[in-house]
Amino acid sequence: MRRLRSISCALACTALAAFGSAAAAGDCRPAALEKLRAAAPAGFAIYQQIKDKKFFLNWISCDEADFGLPTAVHESVHYITAETDAFPLIHGGQLKRPHEVSAFFAPSLIAGKFKANDFVSTYLRPGSASSSTDFLYLLDELNAYTHDLNAAVNFKSRVADEGEAQVDHRDGLSADGVRRALCRAGGGERTCDLARLA
Q1: Nearest of 122, 110, 103, 131 to residue 183 by alpha carbon
Q2: What is the tens place of the pLDDT at every residue in 18-43?
C-alpha cells in the first residue's frame, strides 16, 4: 500500500511539473519579446514583420537563458524571405532576392575553403541542403545567420550584466568570415557585393 501511494505521489508530482513548465512556457513569451525589443531592436523588427506570429513564438524556449530568441529570429528571417521573395536587412528595408545567382557555381565547391564545422557540414557539403547546390539559398542562410548573430550579440551584451549570458551553438559563426570565403572562392565582384549586402 505504501508503494502504491509512492507511485501515485510520483505520478501526481510529474503531472504537476509538466503542467507547471507548460504554464511557464506560456508565461515567458511576453517577457522574452520584451527582452528582445529592449536588447535587439532589429531582431524585434523581424517579430513585428512576420505575419505568422505563432511561427516566431514557437521557437521561443523558456528553458534557455536567451529564450532561444536568436533561433526564432533566424528561422523567421527564412519565413519572411520566402513570403516576400526578398531578404530583410538588419537595419530595415529589404533586398529583392537575386534569382540570377542560382546560375552561379555550386556553393559546395567552396566547402574546402573552410575548416570542418557544423556550418560546412550542414550547408555546404553536397547532398546536405539546397544551399550546397544553389547560391541563392546560401545567401538566404547568410542573411538569416547575420540576423541571428546580430540578435545574439545584442541580447547577450544586454543580459551579461544580469549574469544570464550563455553561448549558443550559432554564436561562433562569423558572417564576415563566410562573406570573405565566398569572395575568395572566385565568384567575382558581383558575388562579393551580394554577399556584403546580406
Answers
A1: 110
A2: 434 444 445 799 999 999 999 999 99
Is 80 in contact with 49 (CB distance < 8 Å)? yes
Give the model confidence (pLDDT) of 145-182 as tens digits: 999 999 988 877 765 555 554 545 454 444 545 555 55
Measured distance CA(29)–CA(44) in Å, rounded: 13
- How far CA 93 is from CA of 43, 45, 141, 168, in Å, comes to 13, 11, 18, 27
Amino acid sitting at position 21: S
Output the 3-class SS for 123-135: HHCCCCCHHHCCH
The pairing of beta strand 94-96 with beta strand 86-88 = antiparallel
For the chain, the domains span: 29-197
Query: How far is Cα 117 from Cα 184, in angstroms, rounded to an integer?
Result: 19
Instruction: Give the list of residues 6+ apart from residue 86 with CB closer than 8 angstroms, or none.
Output: 94, 95, 96, 97
Per the CB < 8 A criterion, the answer to whether 98 and 73 are in contact is no
Lookup result for grid cell 560546412: 120
Query: Looking at the chain, how many residues does it have?
Result: 198
Backbone angles phi, psi at 142, to 5 degrees: -60, -45
Q: How many CB atoms lie within 10 A of CB 96?
A: 9
